[in-house]
Structure formats: structure tokens, C-alpha cells
Amino acid sequence: MKIFFISDIHGSLYYLEKAIENYKKEAADFIAILGDELYHGARNDLPKGYNPKGVTELLNKYSDKIIAVRGNCDSEVDEMVLDFPIMSTYSSILYNGKRLFLTHGHIYGEDNIPKLMDGDVLIYGHTHIPVAKKENGIFIINPGSISIPKESNPNSYGILENNIFKIKDLNMNTFKELHI
């Protein structure tokens, strides 16, 4: 199974279209969205190609392939227009004997790691900063943001296949990698 991870779309149809192109090229089975699908939030400038309605339409085409969690900029109104649930604070996926704990990062994250077992994986967004490391037996991963990267990082996404998590820029160049 191959999982494509994106976070912090913030309503950018421009960057979502690039990400979906990469999802297809990667031939991933599922898309995991780590929150902040439609809106930019009060702390962010409008991202390039800001078009929440267009983002909704494009994401809905892939609704049967999407696993999503709620970000701090998401609301119940957003879930009313999306054809997949987004209002859960977290989701867990079992992957090759490991628990993948998916969350946005504003509740659970590096500063508030949930109760996980040794070897489990925390995957979050929110900070817009790519992370791939292991601390205290827990793998900690953030694929960064596809639309509003921070700290001079590239627009990025993650891909998980064969127990290898890669963080790539939108040109599909791997710049972080972690064997989980």
C-alpha cells in the first residue's frame, strides 16, 4: 500500500492541482490530508490560486481515496461541502504492523505526543515545516505544506511505501527520508 500525504492546502487550487498530479505519478493508493483543506486562516496570507470552491470540487473527485482529519482552520461548514469526513481530531491507520497516528498538529504534535507504542508513527501538519525523525521510540513526521511552506522550505508532500516515508518537493525531489 502506498499513501500520499498532504497538509495545509489552505484553499489553494493552484498547489492542490500540482499535488494531485504528483499523487497520480506516484501511483498512490490513498490520500491522507492532515487538515486545513479550504481556508487560509487569519495568520496566513492568501496562497497562490486561492479558490476554496475549486479545491472542494477537485478533492470531491477523490473522496473515495481520502482519509482526512480536522485542522485548526476547518469547520463543520467545510464538511458540508466535502464528500468525505474531516472533523475528527485524529485518525489511526494500521500499516505493516505499525500504528500511524494522523492529526493536524494543533492539538497533538511534537509538543503533545499522544500515548503511542514504541515504533508507532505520529504524522501531523500545522507547522508547515517538514520533519522526519525518531525520538524516544516514536517516529515523528510532518510532510510540510503544499501551499504555504515556512522557514524557507519548499512546497512539499509525503509518500509512504515499503516502510519508507519520503518528503518531496512538488518537483518530486526527495529531501527528507525516514525508514519506519
Automatic annotation (TrEMBL):
Keywords: Hydrolase, Metal-binding. Pfam families: Metallophos_2 (PF12850). This is Phosphoesterase. The lineage of its organism: Bacteria, Bacillati, Bacillota, Clostridia, Eubacteriales. Its EC number is 3.1.4.-. It is an enzyme of class 3 (hydrolase). InterPro entries: Calcineurin-like_PHP_lpxH, Metallo-depent_PP-like, MPP_YfcE, PdiEstase_YfcE_CS, Phosphodiesterase_MJ0936/Vps29. It comes from the Bacteria. Residues 1-161 form the Calcineurin-like phosphoesterase domain. It comes from Clostridium neuense. Its cofactor is a divalent metal cation. Belongs to the metallophosphoesterase superfamily. YfcE family. One of its GO terms (molecular function) is hydrolase activity.
